[in-house]
Amino acid sequence: MHQDQAEPQPGAPGAPPLAPGGPPPGGGIAEDTALELLVHGVGGSTPAEMLDDPCTVRVSGDQTAAVHRRAQDADAEQRPEDYRGKPVPEAYVWSNLTSGNGSRALWLLLLPFMVVNLAHWMRPSTTGRRTAVRLYGLLVRLVALSLTVLLTAAACEVALDLVAWQCAGTESCSGGRAWLGFLAADAQGHGGWWSQPGRRLALAALVPGALTALLWYLSHRTWRSYESQQPLPAVDRAEQEAEERAPHAALGRPGFWYGRRLGARLRAAHTSAGLLTVGAAVAGPAAGHDRLPGGSSLLGALGSALQAALLVTAVAVVWVVSRRGRAESRLDEHLDRLVRALPLTALTLSLLSLGYAGWSRPGWQSAGRLPGDETFGTLVLAQGALVVVLAATARRLHATTPERRTVLRGLGGPAVAMLACALGGVMTGGVAQRLADWLDNGSTPGAPGGPIPGPPVLLTWQASVLPPLLVILLAVLVWYAVRTHRRARREEARVAADYPGEPLDATRTARIASARALAALTDRAPVVVGVVSSVTLLLGAGALVGAWTTGRVPGEAARELPAVVSGAAATAQALGSWLIGFGFLLFVTWGRRAYRDPAARRTIGILWDVGTFWPRAAHPFAPPCYAERSVPDLTWRIASWTRETGGRVVLSGHSQGSVLAAAAAWQLRPSARRRVALLTYGSPLERLYGRWFPAHFGPVALTTLHGEVDCWRNLWRHTDPIGGPVRVSTEGRPEVDRAPLADPLAHGRTAAHPLPAPILGHSDYQADPAFAEERARLLARLEKPASLPKQLPGADGRPAQGSSGRSSG
């Protein structure tokens, strides 16, 4: 039976004798002892599956992430003679960091924050250009800040404008809703104590205020739980100073996986931005009313002073975000004083705004909309300008050291930042459109004759451009479907050549060729992202111009135009309103399903495995970074084991596990790194990470890693949609990439495979005999590095007979 649920903790009675840092004192230790540390990939795995044994024990770690062994291997260090010529297998299980909890699927609602955080790490690789590098990081952080303001402004639009201002102030809207009765006012503006517009706004402001507080709490709590792990320390002060001065690949810098100071600064700035947005949304209408003829001069002066204070604090927030980026050359542990002062100042001003708006103003009545068009228009304009400048900066960086395989010629980061803004617009516009549609009893939001004016005109224009965007996206997908079909036909000849001497079946050949063609679609994703981002930018600019020049929704603005144009505009408006609302509901429904359905939760967990590898360097409210826990885990385990035993390690990573393995190898001290061999399979190191994140996984970084570890072999298949070759320059060292593995192992029925062999794609690499062959070669090279030739035998990729097992992914 599987023992992970009830095993004793290390050190407790009945616990395995292995200590977390290595073998117990006095245990037998041999320098030729080998450890195979398996790291699973996307989607997670169990220790029993990874170790191919139902009886496993946890030797280090907790319920979130831990190292496991087979029960029979728990005291392997005390019996080195039993492990001559074979490694001690261990499994590092980290799936609970991403998909182990159903509530974590609700992070899906913060997808725009995660996407813009990815844009920060997509900076092109460059030589020099420190000013441009800093400008790139600054621009991404400002885009991220605008998304926080956008989210808070959308919450204010829903709670303050649509509910408290429009519906509660209109008898035809609030009359049939008992839950709005205490806020409602009649046609003459009479009602209860809460019926005055300022008091309604102050009460409704608690909703976006609570949302901001919730985001701060989640960000702070997840940082303490997942990202506050200390990296491996230097042995002494001199070694630490030498490490800081030495040139490193970015992921090998001492402070790369510990950004406490920047994270705290960004969390304080974004929390303050949210609170200031709430304060401005409440104080603005009240101050505008007080400055009208007949208003109170004292309240008018107080409102102007409050708005000035909000503006000054907002400038301070922008300065804090702009002032400092990541410090990776050392541990960034010191906190700034403003981490507490800035949010407290913003909170104080917001509370003063609520009190100011709640002051009695008997003659005030709510009519029309709050000034949401100006707010959302300014945000959209600022986001578009920032993305354009970001694109120019990225192109300049890419031009210094152009790399052929970098996606979109260095424009991957700006394209993804544009997608983040588009996602933010879909989610904010979607919730506003759906709520407005519900409040006005099914009428088209913003159309004349409805009980309420509806959401800002710009949000309706943004919804209206969604249908043409989907049409263009569909055309791109159809084009790629045709190309994939043609590629599959061409692959059939290659499939036949890969299985010489075997009887061929046309149906089987077509299936294998289709699997290869579909796997190749991954390499076409940059074009799709580029097209969608470019079209989104152009259509968004058109929506902004249309909203500001006409001041009316598309259907009304096109009424004077020919009937065809007018009808198309009205159709786009109605269809876009439905689609943008449906898009938001899809996010909510998917998150709710993931909470109840383990299969759906596993699928969303795969998305987070890819999207949350990177630290929160641009947006503090993005989902937490699991690598800031898993990379120190692996580094500590390898370093402590090699130090205590003097043995060698085969770091075996599948899929996303290979990325964690590479990051851990970069973090090791040179003495420990020389005792490590990398075995990667189904690895996206170059195919995805190298192309999308060239500054950190580009050719220079991967070639450096190849030169620093003792040896490295990579296995891949043509049918794998995620993994691929790492394309490392060898320069006299052994080749890293083995020739592509045959998949399936046999085309038809053979003596070795009497039943049809499955097409494995991204899974079950350990089931291929080549896996055991390459692992044995790595162990042999680690044991006697001087006696082996530069070129490993078997690099032609011919599979040898050997043992098989389960995939660690």
Automatic annotation (TrEMBL):
Region spans: Disordered = 1-33, 64-84, 776-809
Q: TM spans, by residue?
A: 105-123, 135-155, 201-218, 268-287, 299-321, 341-359, 375-394, 415-436, 456-482, 525-548, 568-588
Query: Where is composition skewed (Basic and acidic residues) in this entry?
Result: 70-84
Keyword Zinc-finger on this protein? Answer: no
Annotated Pro residues bias: 10-26
- From which domain of life does this come? Bacteria
Task: Tell me the protein's name.
Answer: Integral membrane protein
